[in-house]
Amino acid sequence: MADTPTLDMNHLRGWIGREDVGRDVVSEDLARKYHATLDYPGAPPAWGERVPRLIHFCLAQPAAPTAGLGPDGHPARGGFLPPVPLPRRMWAGGAFTFLGDLRVGDSVKRLSRIADVVLKEGRTGALCFVTVAHRVEANGALVLEERQDLVYRGPDAPGAEAKVLRPAERGTHRRAMKVEPPLLFRYSALTFNGHRIHYDRRYATEVEHYPGLVVHGPMQAALLCNYATELRGAPPKRFSFRGLSPLFDGDALVLHAAEDGENLKLWAARENGPVSMAAEASWS
Q1: Residues paired with residue 269 on neighbouring β-strands, in sequence order
Q2: Torsion region of 180: left, alpha or beta (phi above 0 gives left; psi -120 to 50 gives alpha)
Q3: Measured between alpha carbons, how far is 261 from 265 in angstroms, rounded to an integer?
Q4: Cα distance between the two ends of the chain
Q5: Residue 24's beta-bridge partner residues?
């Protein structure tokens, strides 16, 4: 197993309760570019119209100076997020309760708080989970409560065998799409995400030792949430997702969905590959 640094959990847990506030506006320009990036059909939302769920990933994002970025492209550790000394950071999952809609023209306020920092032991070594609670307001009214689960882990040990995962089941509903570098680059730009694993192939393969560019977890979640909206004809009131395995550029991404009573089970996977993300949408 690869060597990993010692984690001072007392120090890292000192970040619990730390808060960050961001403000933004849902502009027509953002709605237009988001619509184009994810290839949504029809015309983009106009002034006053509802925008897709999870577009808030593009809003009120921290804007660290370029000189203040770490070697992975994220803001240097130890600001709002705790300085976990493990090299790989991934968005492991999240859950959302929607209390209203964001619309083009809305003034948005995001309040974020570190809710928990926990150390666990995984197959590849130490895993540090950081839970962030977000509240999003539009024009002073609460429209979204979110739990964000981040995981930090060390690199795979040299020569370690990858865990064999069974291929994903076939959903009642399916949609295939291509995941190529321009899509990853555009989504990184919209979300102001500088993480180099999504656009810098040399960094992704030679430093973090992935086989290719990594497909954003939040983007997969947004695609699945919009797919649920399309299938039911209305956006869900609750949506949750969990990352299960990485997905890389060049993979043929397939969105799957199956009825689960009043809910929808959804998952994303590459063609003939394992589930990369599992999700659930609820309208009650």
Answers
A1: 254, 275
A2: beta
A3: 10
A4: 45
A5: 108
